[in-house]
What we know:
This protein is an alpha/beta fold and 775 residues long. It contains 34 helices and eleven strands. The protein is elongated.
Amino acid sequence: MPVILRVKEEVERTPPVDTALRQILGLSFEIQWILNEPDLLNSFQSRIDSLHQAFLFLVAAVPPQIARTKIEAYLDWCLHQSPFEEQTPPLSIDNYQQQLIQFTKPLVNAIIDFWDIAWLTPEDKRLEAIEILNKAEQYYLMTIERPQLATLTTIPGDDKHLLIIDNKPIDPFTIETREELKKIQSPQSTSDDSFLPDWYTCLSDVEQALLRHALSKCDLSNPDHIIFIPSRLRTIPSLANASEETWRLIHQTTGAITDLGTCLRSAHIASRDSISFTPEIQSLHTERNLSHLQQYFGDRTGLLQTLISPIWVLDNITRDYFLEQQRIGAIEKLKQQQEQDLLSSNHPFNIARAITSTPVNSPECLAILKTARDAISQAKNPVVLEALTDDYEKTLNSGLLTAYILDWNGRELFLSSLEQLIIMHCDGVSYGSCVSGKDRKALSLIHTLAMKLYQRQYNQWPKYTDTGQARDQFTRIVAHLYLSFHHHYFSGQNAPGSNGIKTPDGYFPNDICQAIKKQSGNPSILKQDDRLASNNEVKDIVGSTRDQIMPQQASRALAAIQLGHNNRELLITLIYTITQQTDFWVRKTKTAKADLFTLGGALSRLGFFATQLTGIDLSSTPTGIYEINRFLTKATTTLYFPTSRGSSEESGDADRFLDPADKPWDDDMGSRDVDTVSQNELLPRTIDNMPSINLLVRICQIVNDRLGQQTANRDPITQQFYECIQKTMASSHPGETFMRELTTLYQIQTEACNRRAGGPSSEDTPARTMLDAPA
């Protein structure tokens, strides 16, 4: 197992410290230096790299319906849209986020267009494609060995010791699950499902294929090889995101190691993804995970603590109520089967505590209290255990309204920490989870460790009722531990690059949040952490809107990619020039004969669209033409557009321009002078810097929307213009079809430019005859 040691910049490693580190971590470990602020560039680059690998994993596990070479070309384009480079000053998190969105949305669109989900509605396609990409990443991560993660940092107020927080992955599977996975891994699993487990047959065909592909890369025969199950992968019975966390002090002079405590953590023992399965499969997940934990508890007192918000009316959104019922049911069943009781509790950290706070007479808390009282006489340090037990009872009975309204210091947070400390001092085993085991659980562990460090410095335990200096001293320690970013990077292992904690300001009391902001020097750091953590879900990257995620987007982009750069710019040049000729288009809608005596006609003659001044479209320019022109005018690329043509004589150059010998649509034009391409004077117009592929995708979307709206008022030339663009983009490779449609576009351009320059009317030009000919 690889080992990573993260070291804070201010840490001074002495020879005795290095010796201690080798005792703890082994002889070989990788050192990464910790900056005093999150490395945004690294986080977002890692996020893109992981989604990139996930997409390739999907291609290998569930091949798309198009050739792999086309998928690779499309993916290269996606990557080139988000070039992460170190800049001075560095980009803001919003800038990085936009680049991540620009990369992720096309991946989702590719799944919509290139995988077999055509039978779904457009909205269901969007949701299914997002979920498929999510699943692909989860199973891809299953094939990557999770490293042991440790962080070495200083301790505020203690210059004699360093603190090391160490998370070591633990086996997520029971023996039974591992044997089932071996059967699925075997070649016969695809042809003979008679021996397959029920939980596996509940999975979709896509997910079964992803699992089989992941297992083909996993060594299940080696019991010492720990397979990583990320926190979001909850369709396999397993302790997802499972780890053993240990806290130690290292004396800087002597290298002496002091053990501060060990606890277990993972995602919830119940799977919220199993809610659509049968009750038997739901219970199988929960009970098998609980049974697996029992192996770690052994004969010692065990605590199973969860940190979720079970509100029945919100269960369709959070699923926390379902998880809570699963926990309670599994614990009750265990009590009936065994003489030894397992202590268990739940504490909501967020706003839900206003409704579901821990009651004073909670049977689970009273059982913990009784166990602690009974253990005091036999404890290694009875004074400490008694003090913790007294504080726990006082916090449980903290008084009216302290559950939420008067809850300044975090009652549920203190109950959570005190329970863990009590079990540790009872020589028991503390296990905890939230839904994922990485956000709320992280804050609980930070708070609990801070209580340990506070007690060592001030020889007393911090209390829920503390105020003034005592409270400030404690919040300073909490903030320092939070800013080691250890738990952020532990969280990021579940979705590389999402190195953050979700909504910490919704879980931590306000004074701790303010202490974190003050110490970091960044008033937005908690919002930033939430943004990074939320990027673990594809749906939170792309957002809930349908903007840029829809059928045919990827197909249009791939068509534009296959045209090649020069062909794309040539096509955009023609489209832009054609749509610029407002005089030509102003009479192309039969029912709106705008002229000088109408507002629309007068505004058009003055060079305005009526919508620009009145908000009402009184002009007769076709809507699609107007939309394309408006988009290109605001678009973002530097192109060259031909100047207006003054006479029909210049139209003869069109034939020469379209001579196959010139091949202006090939990519190998190299450094050829642009003037020799069009044989005309060219006028540079800067529109900014949007890639031409995106321009054509948007143009095709507008054209498709127009063609989908049948109308008897559309002029034949307008219709042919739309269809010509559509056929040009539909050509599989620049060739005969592309040449023919490009010729038509060029003739429309000649017709439009002649009309603007006072040349012959459409009825007198050869172009008119060609345009009126059958397609």
